[in-house]
Specification:
Distance between the termini: 26 Å
Structural class: mainly alpha
Number of helices: 9
Number of strands: 0
Radius of gyration: 16 Å
Helix content: over 70%
Strand content: under 5%
Order of helices and strands: HHHHHHHHH
């Protein structure tokens, strides 16, 4: 899909606004909600989650039904590719979102408990602090914690655990400026 570009194409078509020129300049949920309202924020959020989940789900289903054969590593590489494509979209001059919702979609396919724990942590922190970036950072740490538990229980593979670790570092990297603003107490509220 090309809506982070969800946040770009969606509002460009409906409201004539380019999110890259508004607020934080991001094409993700937080900026879309701040600049366009809850409805468009949720459209962007759900579109980005779907974008992350769809390629991995297809690969799993094709493998499960014997139509194609993908290894765990290949499926995880699809996750990295969709995350990279989201954050550096060829459709919007190599710009995009920070990858949180798209990562949530990837994590949802690795194991739903990972995505759900991270999502609800993000939601709780967002509700308490009104800061999506802070919720995103704590949410990915919760997802990692859940992944470690599932790995030691033998429920997910080492490849899946490594993927979650890589995604965690990716999210921290894309939030460098947010982390600086959080430390300096200058981070804008998302809601």
């Amino acid at each position: 899909t090309n809506l982070g570009a969800e946040g770009y194409v969606g509002e460009e078509k409906v409201k004539g606004i380019d999110l890259r020129d508004c607020g934080s300049g991001g094409t993700g949920f937080a900026n879309a909600k701040r600049e366009l309202g809850t409805k468009w924020g949720l459209v962007v959020l759900l579109g980005d989650i779907f974008k992350g989940a769809f390629p991995l789900l297809n690969a799993y289903l094709l493998t499960k039904h014997g139509l194609m054969e993908f290894t765990d590593l290949q499926i995880m590489l699809f996750g990295y590719a969709v995350l990279f494509g989201h954050c550096y979209s060829i459709f919007i001059d190599w710009k995009g979102g920070k990858g949180v919702a798209t990562s949530c979609g990837v994590l949802l396919i690795i194991h739903p408990a990972i995505a759900v724990s991270g999502f609800f942590c993000w939601l709780l922190i967002l509700f308490i602090t009104k800061k999506s970036s802070f919720g995103s950072l704590l949410g990915i740490l919760m997802a990692l914690t859940t992944s470690v538990v599932l790995f030691y229980m033998g429920i997910i593979s080492l490849t899946s655990l490594i993927t979650v670790i890589v995604i965690m570092f990716w999210i921290i990297n894309t939030h460098r400026e947010n982390i600086k603003r959080l430390i300096e107490k200058r981070e804008r509220n998302s809601v």
